[in-house]
Amino acid sequence: MSLIAKAFRSTPKAKIEIKNIKYLFAGLLSLISIAIGQKLKAIDIHDLFDAIAHGTTGEQIDPDFIETPETFEKRIQRARDFWKIPIPLPDKK
Fold first, then answer.
1. Would 61 be classed as within a structural domain?
2. CA distance 52 to 19
3. 1 pLDDT band (50/70/90 cuts)?
């Protein structure tokens, strides 16, 4: 049996939650913004997710990101490490 067929027949090894996916996406946004030289601050990314939540559910804030700004920023930093994409980062001036 091929690995792909086995993967479809077996159960997932990790539980995937929407909150974790959002953090990984926030990390990717942060990584891309750094790569193009327009670094987004954690609060900017948080505001983006709040705007999406307001537009889709009518809630003023995203319920998955109710935490301190420091904690949110740290989780974004960890999520950037997840991607391990060889994006050339701009030189520090």
1. yes
2. 14
3. low
How many domains is the chain built from? 1
DSSP for the chain? --HHHHHHHSPPSS---HHHHHHHHHHHHHHHHHHTT-PPPHHHHHHHHHHHHHHHH--SS-GGG-S-HHHHHHHHHHHHHHH---PPPPPP-
* Per-residue model confidence as pLDDT tens digits over 47-93: 999 999 999 998 899 998 888 999 999 999 999 989 877 766 666 65
- Residue ranges making up the domain that contains 36: 17-83
8 is a domain residue: no
The closest of 63, 20, 21, 28 to 45, measured between CA atoms, is: 28
